[in-house]
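A quick aside before the break. I want you to see a complete sequence-to-structure record at least once, exactly as it would be stored in a machine-readable document. Don't worry about memorizing anything.
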Amino acid sequence: MGPAACQAGAGVGSASCGGRRDGASLRAVPGTACGGSSADQVLEEKEKLKALRSFKFSCQQTMTPGTPSSSVHTLRPTDIKTVTAIGSLQMTPGSSMHHEDLYQSTEKSFLEVSVETLAALISSFNPSVWQQSSPPGTKGETSEGQARDLVDQAKEMLKVMKENQTMDFQNDWKLITIFFSAENPCSSCAVTQPKNCILDNLEKLKEVLDFLYREVPKAFVNLVDSTELTSSSHICQDHHNASSPNRNQCNCVGEHSAVDDTILRWSYQDAWEKLLESERYDQRDDFTVILQPSLQEINLLLRLERDGFNTISKTQVEILEEDYTFMAVGLWNNMLEPVGQKKPYDLTKMLQVQCPSQENPYFFTYKNSNYSSVPVTSNTKETSQERSYGTSIPCSGHAPSATVPTSVHKLRPADIQVIAALGDSLTAGNGAGSKRYDVLDVLTQYRGISWSVGGDENINTVTTLANILREFNPSLRGYSTGTGRETTSNAAFNQAVAGDRAEDVPAQVRRLVDRMKNDTRINFQTDWKVITLFIGGNDLCQFCNDPVRYSPENYTYNIQTALDMLHREVPRAFVNLVTMLSMASLQDLYTDKSISCPRLIMRSLCPCVLNYDASSNEFQTMVSFNKKYQERTRQLVESGRYDTKEDFTVVLQPFMMNVNVPKTQEGLPDSSYFAPDCFHFSQKTHSQAARALWNNMLEPVGQKTDNQKLENEIVLKCPSEAEPFLRTYKNSNYAYPYQTLSYGSQLLCEDRTPSSSSAASVHSLKPADVKIIAALGDSLTAGTGIASDNLMDLSTEYRGLSWSIGGDASLENVTTLPNIFREFNAKIVGYSAGTGHANESGAFLNQAVPGAEAEQLPDQARTLLRLMKTDPRIDFNADWKIITVHIGGNDLCNYCKDPDHYSAVNFTRRIQETLDILHEQVPKALVNLVEVMDLLPLRQLFVDTQVQCPTYLADYLCSCVLQGEENSQNVTMVREATRAYQLGIQKLVESGRYDTHENFTVVVQFFLQNLGIPLHQDGHPDVSYFAPDCFHPSQKGHSQLARALWNAMFQPVDQKADSFDFTANVTLSCPTQQNIPFLGTYRNSNYTYSAVDPTNRPIENWGSDLQCSEQTFSRSVPTSVHELRPVDIKVIGALGDSLTTAVGAQATDPQGNWRGLSWSVGGDGALETRTTLPNILKKFNPNLFGFSTGNTKETAGFNAAEGGAKALNMSSQARELVELMRSSSKINFKEDWKLITVFVGGNDLCQYCLDKETYSVQKYIKHLQDTLDIFYEELPRVFINMVEILEISGLRQIAASSSGCSISEVNVCPCFLTPKENSSELQEMRRVNRDFQVEALQMVNSGRYEQREDFAVVMQPFFRNTFVPLDSNGKPDLSFFSVDCFHFSERGYAEMAIALWNNMLEPVGEKQSYNNFTHDRSKLKCPTLENPFLFTVRNSGFRNSAPNSEKTKTSVPYWAVIVAAIAGMLAGSLFIWVVSVRRAKKCRHETDTAMDLKSTSL
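That is the input. The structure line, written in tokens, reads:
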């Protein structure tokens, strides 16, 4: 293929050999046509194919066009001359797909995109390939009734081919793709007559294939099942819809489940595959049809709802077309995979375009794949038991009890009158009686042979639990017979539903109970019942798609709900809870290729088990969930929760707990134990399960079989005279290991007397003097999750068990502060009891609210005050009160999201407001102010993989604390804030503000200052001290908190404990007449207050100290910008507006341009007195050139900034700066390394509302790009700081609270200052502000400026989240601002310089994205021996080390840089948005789980 071929105009598109490359990732390597650029030219010059640039393409041209192949079985890509497709990709009637309008608005249909893509890929082998546009009737906007018949489309296609003058119809090879749909599974045909429906569909397919086979020579035909793309079936199929009452959105006739959908779809494909395997279309050597993988295995709409970053710059239509391209590339790849080894499509992975190999240079057909679908048969010999599925009963005594027992623990098999079952398709009997290979029959529910409840025939021919029990009591009722769904009469009390999950079982219980009550053949009150519950397979199969919904905690909670209903409503019942089986071994059956199984069905039904390798993290997570399902249900049952009545029990039957897939004599998985889908049980397994369940029921608890081998013969056990009963926990003498423990304490105090007369002073208050107890706070005090045993119960507030205010039971079994005080005064009031919210009567004076922050604390104090004044049990003026206040956890959990709002100053101010209310209005009170808990140690619970904690809830519970690396920015911020909170309240209380009269004081209790996580002997955390969320304390933890608080109240102020050990063996302290008779206060501890707000020495200047030890030159001048050290920088410059000209830096001339003080380019003075970027760099290179001095234009140096400049002025400033540098005799223009800082956009934002077109986001980015392009093209050796535009909305806070500002709203920034708060105009400005930031970040990190080794642009984001600095009164600190309150003062500019320098020394993705406005001369960072360079995208680990090397793979794609860099900005909001959109668009009822959990954080 020579250069001439590149000029051909008859192909996908003509291309010359010298076109642009633009960094496209789809390229041909040297050696291909046109010097390796044919793929580049074809793909890059065609804008319509831009999505192909996302793919890696490295095919070498190993084939030269000679004589085209004469056989379709040796057909190479280079032989293809024509690419076309037919099909009806229309929406089916009645579709409720949310994106129907999106399909219709897409400019190209999937057929068009697939043809374009395949033609483009083939063009790299044969540039003259011709693509034929799709015939009419293939666009998505036509309805089913209007869609052109496929045969008509084929005729139209044939006509166009024959009329094409550039094509040799008889001799040119044609690639034809047929997109063919199965019958809509919601149609009456598919539901009522599936086999006939499949045959009709097959005839339609034959008709079009027969036509093509008869009329079209030299054709390779792809057949693709496009049903998933054309119907709303994936709404019906949505496994997430299981709990929704309206989940069958397609309005199917009759019942319809995910199992039905999957099997129906597979059956269609199986029929098509058998047609093609029959060699009907392989009789000619120039024609073949290949069934390619179905589009069923992708969810097209998923990408629209994932990766919120894409939505910033791409429309949904663009994303949809991109997805079309993904699927077309997947189709191409499968054409190059042998039949039997083709792979499902995956939109979530970056695809490598498959290349023909020298060994297999052709497209694969059935013949050249040597494919055979003949199933392997086993030589296993069945026992007589397996052939008949019957069983003999060896038991002699079948008699019932002499009188009907009243206790379930004395229940004999013959006493049972009623049998029932709950569960999923394994209990419904799907496929249990199906013949081998009849996959479609798996839709049939053979309830009559179901292992736990079926009653077909008798025990001699059908072994089920019901038939075994009928041998003891022939009058047994409730068993199911025949086939049918749960709604049929013959289903009886088998209310299992195919496809159901644990969350659906309560609804099954409701139906079962109603059926039982309405059945006149049974006596609901007196008949003994056996109910078997087996559920969980579908939960585990889908857990990876929604780990919260299918968490072990939710699984257990749903089972608990169902069992609670049975326990509450069903008398005389023995409930078998069959342990969830081990799912891991299903992989053995799936992966063994010698076994004929419909693997598409298997992985569709159970993707989370079968889509991952056994060694993968995902698979190991599944195994962990599986074990937790088993363990949590065991804990539930063994808690004794269901053994509170004599006529009811639940017994765990564990025979499936460690079950493995049965093996043949050859050691292969034995598929005879499975239905034809290789997923459900065959009758052989149902029989074995019935035997194993029966034996479990007769085995004592603690000795039950938990690893039944299904391939072994199972002999039925018999009740004995000594042990005639079904075994329960009680009649097995089993000790419950999970029963609630006592968390009481002993109080050994001898002196429990009150003061001889009513205590006159709070400083002489004895415990017995206290009459009232109260508390304020958050969920820790509200009692969230104290007694919970699953995540769903975390919304319960166990106020009666709360450490500081609970009063349930007594100290003997519940340790709380009130229960300790009640040992001194039994008449104390105010404590909370039971469960409930703050506004319920049981809460009483516990006014803590889950989720409360310090901001809400004053309102709690006011409510408490009202309650105490109005309650008749309280003598408000005479009774002594203890009030415990603990708050701050939620403030810390949200601190990183808004450090301004949650600042230590604001936190302390809100505590002060609360204490002031109490101090001014509550007489006779001692207030315990328990210090803010250090939450960071809780991270250990979420990083230790050996601990069973819900790590997936970290973001909901406390994202700022529990997420991120140990030394991440967020964690560092929280660590500093915690200490600042603690110091703030300490200074507040130690000011003496609340010791102004004798009947009131506040005492800080320090014991939570340093929290220790309890550990087991193996060093892993002991989660027994925590609720199921591993965040709130359990009752065990609350007991320890109560003991610590009580003891702290007796410790002198200067001797108080400042740490807390959950595991400490704490003895309760006692008051003594000699030493400590009173509750400790500052005064009776003889504590000397520290000085209040000492006057600091005035700050004389805003200089900084640089402590860097390594300030020497590089060994040689670097040639790469990625090895640039601060010492290598010779020249400095800047572009920008009045913030870079340093307006306002001098108070004496607030409107002057003091360029010498400019943060990024000013060089007046020295670093010790003035902090600027040049003054920092001069410490490394005293000969730095280009900085500004003074306040005149002549001394501006390379500071090209101008007051009032906007983005549109940047390109002219850039040209000016380039010319200044080029013409300067002081620098070596080519050899000197240059540092340029660009900061602009404030004026654009401030004027945006006045001219949205001129100041649009798109124009802003275009101007910045033009500026950088100038530098990229003209400046050698340069490092550019692009400083992210600041959040300007903070300006409103300054203007609103500062009357002294000489600010003009209209002239300075009208678009931010004139709109009203919460107005749509203000919301728009904030959005545009954020768009400026995000789009600039994407542009910088797009890879556009990374082809030169001596050039780098780095986004410095310290202004991304701008927080207005506040003074000690919580008002804006104007010392950082000029008198106009818009520009910065010298102090403010110094902070900008520090932040910029520190950003330069922080890796991309880890840069600080906020500015810490605090004066500290030592804040400057230093280069280190490990990281001596200024950080770029590449040396931060986001690019490989040699971008121009053709053999080196890119380590991280460019989009990862953007994701890493803006994660801090968008992660929280985007995560919540993506989750909500995905759930809404998948037709799910939104569950409240996540929000409930969110409300239970501290």
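Two observations worth writing down. The chain has a mean pLDDT of 81. The longest strand covers residues 80-87. We'll return to this after the break.
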